[in-house]
Write a structure and sequence with these properties.
The protein is an alpha+beta fold. The chain folds into two domains: 14-79, Orthogonal Bundle (Arc Repressor Mutant, subunit A), CATH 1.10.10; 92-159, Alpha-Beta Plaits (2-Layer Sandwich), CATH 3.30.70.920. 29% of the residues lie in helices and 18% in strands. It has helices at 18-23, 32-43, 49-56, 60-72, 106-109, 139-150; strands at 14-15, 78-79, 92-100, 118-123, 130-136, 153-159. The strands form two sheets. It has a four-stranded antiparallel β-sheet. α3 (49-56) packs across α4. The longest helix is centred in the middle third of the chain and has 13 residues, at 60-72. The protein is extended and about 55 Å long. The termini are far apart.
């Protein structure tokens, strides 16, 4: 299996690819009703069509059709459970910035199965090529994992002391974007 696009422990019940929304593989842009459906499904991905229909003031068949279109368009990419990773035996979280060595790119020379502790991989611009989120059982486990990841290049790790905010639901984009402030001191 190749590296998946989503995390092993997704914090939301429903996950979708916002980039795909921007390209709209649907026959129309998302409207307020679509966003209300997405909001409710993020709150509870196990809602029946009947309950969801009551929450968004539509008929059950209309809700089912909209959900089907959102799934087919790739806006909704799956459903999952929220996991308390500490209770599941993985109490330590760390972020690892990786700058791969030439010919040793983690994403090109390994698979997700090689590193089950890695729950997210983000490609970056700048000095590092990737940011990994890892979940481990102990400091010793983390040390061994960092040694294995380190075979692919330079790394910089950050141990999470506590998570203050996680799993914010994706919301409809604002109608107005904040204007960019000019830099009068930097113009000629």
């Amino acid at each position: 299996m190749k590296w998946p696009n989503d995390g092993l422990f997704a914090p939301l019940l429903i996950v979708w690819n916002v980039k795909e929304c921007q390209g709209f593989h649907m026959d129309r842009p998302l409207d307020r009703t679509d966003w209300r459906i997405l909001t409710e499904l993020q709150r509870d991905g196990r809602l029946s069509y009947n309950r969801l229909a009551r929450l968004v003031n539509l008929s059950s068949p209309a809700v089912a059709e909209r959900v089907r279109r959102l799934e087919e368009a790739g806006v909704i990419t799956g459903y999952g459970a929220r996991i308390d990773v500490a209770k599941a035996g993985l109490p330590l979280t760390a972020f690892v910035q990786l700058r791969c060595a030439l010919g040793r790119c983690l994403l090109k020379t390994t698979t997700a199965e090689d590193f089950p502790e890695v729950t997210e991989v983000h490609k970056l611009s700048g000095g590092s090529c990737s940011m990994l989120r890892v979940r481990v059982a102990s400091m010793r486990h983390l040390e061994g994992l960092l040694e294995r990841i380190g075979e692919h290049g330079e790394l910089n790790s950050h141990i999470v002391l506590s998570t203050q905010y996680e799993g914010h639901a994706v919301e409809a984009p604002a109608d107005e974007t904040r204007p960019v402030t000019g830099s009068s001191g930097w113009s000629r």
